[in-house]
Design a protein that fits this description.
Length: 399
């Protein structure tokens, strides 16, 4: 900085004697403030790009910079500093202009692409479940803010909050869609709230921060299981019952018929099972006609139930599975057109003419009918399907 003498310029400006010309290093330039009556004027000369074109002039108030006597004065003083080695600002200006503009740009570009260091926060957002008492019913879900305790570094149990009250910086990957889904529920009707809750729960599949009480919960998606079980294990001749299960939990037919998503909390796992419309219609029939199935009904029922695959898995006594056959492990590609795009998926059809399943996913044991209408079952090698699926994707360049 340097205090300037009003006699050192031919520009018609009044100097109080306290004005100072200062050198700015980033981006390089000089600046100075003047008192012009009641106004405070600031003149800035920017040197970035001076190698290729004119310097940049900026005047905080007043007319065009090129007509300003204050800008002219600063230009004259700056030229003095540049050309006079004995000038107090000469060395500083030389240093400011020694680095080419292009290197400053590259440095600034590199700095702009660096990821900002995340500030240490002693809080985190978690999701808390309150399991329902009724079989198949969805648990309550709410965000909760935990704090890390001092010396132990453990997390507190957390304080419940509302989705629209969560601070944006606490939302990590996977949290924002859930928060958006749960925001604004208070003014909605019950059915809409339940649909929003179901959607939010499905978004938590695989999420690492889901808890019930103090225990971590793994959220997994599955499909309902249709199980044929003896109506009375002590009297198997009484016939079979058809029941719907999610995990190991038996769900009443009226719940299956009316809900779009079923839930079962078992151990540290929350199973979520979407209800396909065909499964819902089956449940309505089961609710209307809760009959035991005698031997005379087995053939027809076991012909119909496999049609519900893959929307549901089947479970039945080994005596009803029919002949065991080898599962067809051929991987087939399914192309589904969607407007101007195609969705590609790889599936297997273990039994001829039967349902297809995603390669490596779904039930290991599948049921169906052979070309002659006889009951058959096959056991899939899920691990082998996964390996061949990966190999096929690699060969096609889809990995």
């Amino acid at each position: 900085m340097r205090t300037l003498d009003s006699e050192a310029t031919e520009a018609p400006v009044f100097l109080a004697g306290t004005e100072r010309l200062g050198v700015v290093l980033e981006p390089p330039g000089v600046s100075m403030r003047f008192r012009d009556g009641t106004k405070l004027l600031e003149v800035t000369l920017g040197f970035s790009g001076y190698e290729e074109g004119p310097i940049r002039l900026d005047l905080s108030h007043g007319g065009p910079p090129e007509r300003s006597p204050h800008v002219r004065a600063v230009l004259e003083w700056t030229l003095d500093a540049v050309h006079d080695p004995k000038h107090a600002l000469h060395g500083t200006l030389a240093h400011a202009l020694s680095q080419p503009t292009w290197t400053r740009f590259v440095d600034a570009l590199a700095a702009s692409l660096e990821l900002p260091k995340e500030a240490e926060d002693d809080r985190r957002l978690v999701w808390r479940l309150d399991p329902a008492d009724a079989p198949g019913a969805l648990p309550a879900l709410a965000p909760s803010i935990q704090k890390r305790t001092g010396k132990s570094g453990r997390w507190t149990s957390g304080a419940a909050t509302k989705a629209d009250k969560v601070e944006p910086e606490l939302a990590q990957e996977g949290d924002r869609p859930v928060l958006d889904t749960l925001t604004g529920l208070d003014g909605l009707d019950f059915a809409t709230r339940e649909r929003r809750l179901a959607h939010a729960l499905r978004l938590l599949v695989g999420h690492p921060r889901v808890f019930a009480e103090k225990s971590r919960v793994h959220v997994r998606e599955t499909v309902p299981t249709l199980a044929l079980v003896p109506s009375d294990p002590a009297e198997p001749q009484r016939g079979l019952r058809l029941v719907v299960r999610v995990g190991e939990t038996e769900v009443p037919p009226h719940t299956v018929a009316r809900e779009e998503l079923l839930a079962s909390y078992e151990g540290d796992v929350l199973f979520l099972a979407p209800v396909d419309p065909r499964v819902a219609r089956m449940a309505r029939a089961l609710e209307s006609f809760p009959a035991f199935l005698p031997t005379a009904a087995h053939d027809r029922v076991l012909t119909l139930l496999p049609r519900l695959q893959p929307a549901a898995e089947l479970a039945m006594p080994s005596s009803l599975r029919g002949e065991r056959v080898d599962a067809d492990s051929t991987i087939v590609a399914r192309l589904v057109p969607d407007d101007d795009t195609l969705t590609l998926s790889f599936r297997v059809r273990p039994l001829p003419g039967d349902a297809t399943w995603p390669a490596g996913r779904g039930p290991a044991l599948v049921f169906g009918l052979d070309p002659d209408g006889r009951r058959v079952h096959a056991e899939r090698d899920l691990e082998s399907e996964v390996k061949r699926h990966r190999m096929l994707r690699d060969e096609l360049g889809l990995a």
